[in-house]
């Protein structure tokens, strides 16, 4: 693919690295001469020091033949205008814009929903933007998914299935300590699959010869109804999340509260808000030291108990019983504070914690601090953008273990060289592993075996080394 990226900040550079690694043709544009000079010898792509919102500049770098335009400058207006400008002249190019102004995002979303019939068919998308990505929305959704999965660790969910991939640490003297994967069925008949193993700072795809040892971390594919049993095998347990404290009533905190409070009235996930009742206000607490944010939260969420207080004040935490809560979600705008708070609250007695952090690098630090789940804001944005760039056959993408591995959901195309073959005929140990398979005639995913046969229209979820992603996709979803 030929992709033009406008904006050489963290997101733009990380996207460029991933795309270059997959052998895509990338052009990176930024008007900051110092930034461009710094990256010129670091990235193997075309780097241009110019204004990316200039059609003349874009045409000079070959936008007419590009497959996609990604605008991730620090200015929402520049991102949106650039997409609109390109759409007016080159409507067939995929256009993605990152926006940080929530009003832009929500107003666009509402307009497209209200006039869904208009923005289909021959009509162009609003502002000419095919996909608008908002960091706060992506982060909030990731945190909600983590809560719905019991906050046991970073969890990846897939549509229309109860199967999920959970990141779980193995305890000393647990049932899995010292076990070779090919012998795991002698210990448990629960159907699960180990996708990857993190040990001694290295990450690898699992195979039958892999030996599990204490203090390693596993990426385990399992039905969410069996997660508690798998946790026991790993020497841990799943706790009910009946009392939850949300620290931070800013935009991300508000989005989290909206989704959790709405969900709690309809379902019970992992015991969360079990037996929803009038006492709900005692089970969901929102804390913020900003008086205005706390007041707004109290008005917006009358069923929650809202405190205008300092979450680092131990006296306050003890008086209100926060130290006995099942889960603390630290989602303030200060990401370093989130990490400190999550670790501090667990030291005082809070059973589990989720922390919003800046990037995957901070996730590694969070893990060492004993934080159960860390959600890297920047990586959520990158995952979202990459999922849109993969093409129509790729439905979803997740990076794991600092980007070393990628989990992809894709559709078998009619032109795929592997259509009609069994998995055992096309296995590539150490390169990729097919985790889930959904036949075109089925509505749900299943964990496949070596005899599972793939056909055009089937969907699969696979895990692969990041530098092997493009080649892996070409095996299954050539277009």
Residue share in helices?
25-40%
Q: State the strand order across the main sheet.
A: 3-2-1-4-5-6
Ranges with pLDDT <50 over ≥5 residues? 265-282
Give the count of helical stretches. Answer: 14
Written account of the structure:
- The chain has 479 residues and is an alpha/beta fold.
- It is 31% helix and 23% strand.
- It is built from 14 helices and 21 strands.
- It has helices spanning 10-21, 33-39, 55-60, 76-89, 102-114, 135-148, 227-233, 251-264, 291-300, 314-319, 335-348, 360-368, 377-389, 469-476; strands spanning 2-6, 25-30, 46-49, 68-71, 94-98, 131-133, 155-157, 163-169, 192-199, 202-205, 217-223, 244-247, 284-288, 305-308, 327-330, 352-357, 373-376, 394-400, 405-411, 432-438, 459-465.
- The strands form four sheets. Strands 3-2-1-4-5-6 form a six-stranded parallel β-sheet, with helices on both faces. A six-stranded parallel β-sheet has the order 14-13-12-15-16-17, with helices on both faces. It has a five-stranded antiparallel β-sheet with strand order 7-8-11-9-10, with helices on one face.
- Strand 2 (25-30), helix 2 (33-39) and strand 3 (46-49) form a beta-alpha-beta unit.
- Helix 1 (10-21) packs across helix 13.
- It is globular.
- 43% of the residues are buried.
- The model is unreliable at 265-282 (pLDDT under 50).
Structure at a glance:
The protein is of the alpha/beta class and 479 residues long. The protein contains 14 helices and 21 strands.
List keywords for this structure.
single chain; about 475 residues; alpha/beta; six-stranded parallel β-sheet; globular
């Amino acid at each position: 693919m030929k992709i033009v990226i406008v904006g050489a900040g963290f997101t733009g550079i990380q996207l460029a690295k991933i795309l270059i690694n997959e052998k895509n043709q990338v052009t990176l544009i930024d008007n900051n001469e110092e930034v461009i000079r710094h990256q010129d010898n670091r990235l193997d792509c075309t780097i241009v020091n110019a204004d990316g919102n200039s059609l003349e500049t874009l045409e000079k770098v070959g936008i007419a033949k590009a497959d996609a335009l990604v605008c991730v400058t620090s200015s929402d207006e520049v991102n949106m205008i650039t997409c609109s400008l390109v759409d007016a002249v080159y409507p067939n190019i995929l256009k993605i814009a990152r926006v940080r102004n929530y009003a832009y995002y929500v107003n666009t979303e509402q307009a497209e929903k209200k006039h869904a019939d208009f923005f289909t068919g021959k009509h162009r998308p609003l502002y000419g933007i095919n996909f608008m990505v908002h960091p706060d929305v992506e982060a909030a959704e990731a945190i909600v998914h983590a809560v719905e999965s019991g906050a046991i660790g970073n969890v990846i969910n897939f549509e229309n299935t109860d199967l999920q991939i959970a990141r779980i640490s193995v305890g000393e003297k647990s049932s899995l300590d010292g076990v070779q994967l090919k012998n795991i069925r002698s210990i448990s008949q629960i159907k699960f699959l180990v996708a990857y193993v993190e040990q001694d700072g290295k990450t690898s795809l699992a195979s039958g010869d892999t030996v599990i040892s204490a203090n390693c971390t596993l990426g385990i594919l399992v039905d969410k109804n069996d997660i508690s049993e798998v946790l026991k095998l790993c020497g841990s347990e799943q706790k009910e999340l009946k009392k939850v404290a949300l620290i931070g009533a800013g935009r991300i905190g508000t989005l989290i509260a909206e989704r959790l409070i709405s969900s709690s009235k309809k379902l019970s996930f992992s015991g969360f808000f079990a037996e929803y009742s009038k006492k709900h206000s005692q089970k969901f607490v929102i804390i913020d030291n900003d008086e205005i944010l706390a007041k707004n939260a109290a008005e917006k969420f009358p069923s929650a108990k809202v405190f205008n207080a300092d979450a680092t004040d131990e006296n306050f935490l003890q008086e209100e019983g926060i130290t006995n809560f099942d889960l603390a979600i630290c989602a303030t705008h200060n990401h370093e504070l989130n990490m400190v708070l999550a670790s501090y609250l667990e030291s005082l007695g809070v059973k589990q914690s989720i922390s919003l952090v800046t990037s995957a690098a901070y996730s590694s630090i969070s893990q060492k601090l004993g934080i159960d789940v860390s959600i890297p804001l920047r990586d959520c944005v990158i995952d979202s953008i990459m999922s849109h760039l993969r093409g129509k056959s790729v439905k979803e993408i997740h990076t794991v273990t600092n980007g070393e591995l990628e989990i992809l959901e894709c559709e078998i195309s009619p032109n795929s060289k592997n259509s009609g073959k069994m998995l055992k005929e096309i296995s590539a140990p150490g390169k990729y592993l097919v985790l889930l398979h959904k036949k075109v005639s089925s509505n749900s995913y299943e964990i496949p075996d070596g005899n599972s046969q793939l056909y055009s229209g089937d969907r699969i979820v696979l895990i692969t080394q990041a530098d092997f992603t493009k080649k892996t996709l070409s095996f299954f979803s050539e277009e």
